[in-house]
Write a structure and sequence with these properties.
alpha/beta, Rossmann fold, 8 helices
Length: 230
């Protein structure tokens, strides 16, 4: 079955495990600018779509057309990675699962958790299944986000929705004694899962910073596609 084959080849299934993506409150994908935070977050969300779950993608960086393009490209990369797939089957599957993806675009000044709460409430009012995860891409963790994280934590508790966030680190900053970028160190007790992406030679290394017994495991990714390098 194509869905199962795609999930098994997902870099997220290998690094985190499908059954583990929605357990807890917060997960983080960290890297310096341009390394692949958003692409990896999209792969996380894509595994949920392939598992017949709804996802909510909130971006403070990209407009809706670019968000949609990222998902189209991520799906194409994953299909290409598993080898030959009947193009018509691939298109039909994407047409089937993509309506379960909703994107909302904000700016830093218009980002509002109350609006997100109202949107999630609309699922309940219509007696529809809630999204399994919410991706929040573009919050500035160089600022004090304590109140924003508390608001997001309240959404997690009210709607049982696991929230994955991007965190931008900086090349010149030293890591903490636990090996965390300072952006995660400031909030580490709130996060059950964290993946740190960093360039290593001509690849991207995905290091699991927080995730139970998977912590400290490393995986190599192709920077062009974000697929695993076997």
């Amino acid at each position: 079955m194509l869905k199962k084959d795609l999930i098994l080849k997902s870099p997220v299934e290998k690094a985190l495990g499908l059954e583990n993506i929605t357990k807890g409150q917060f997960g983080a994908v960290l890297s310096r600018a341009g390394v692949g935070k958003t692409s990896f977050l999209v792969q996380i969300a894509l595994t949920q779509l392939l598992a017949d779950q709804k996802i909510l993608h909130v971006s403070l960086d990209d407009h809706m057309d670019k968000i949609n393009l990222r998902y189209d490209e991520a799906y194409t990369n994953l299909v290409d990675y598993i080898g030959y797939v009947d193009p018509q089957k691939a298109v039909r599957l994407w047409d089937d699962i993509s309506p379960n993806k909703v994107g909302i675009s904000y700016t830093e000044s218009t980002f509002n958790t109350d609006k997100i709460r109202d949107y999630l409430k609309s699922f309940k009012k219509a007696d529809l299944a809630l999204p399994a995860i919410m991706v929040v891409d573009g919050l500035n963790f160089d600022e004090d986000l304590s109140s924003t994280l508390e608001e997001l934590k309240a959404l997690n508790e009210e709607f049982s929705i696991f929230i994955w966030l991007s965190m931008k680190s900086h090349r010149e900053e030293a890591l903490s004694k636990d090996g965390f970028p300072v952006q995660l160190e400031a909030h580490k007790d709130l996060f059950e899962k964290a993946v740190f992406l960093q360039p290593v030679e001509d690849k991207i290394e995905a290091l699991i910073l927080k995730d139970g017994d998977k912590t400290d495991q490393k995986y190599k990714l192709d920077p062009a596609t974000m697929m695993l390098v076997e």
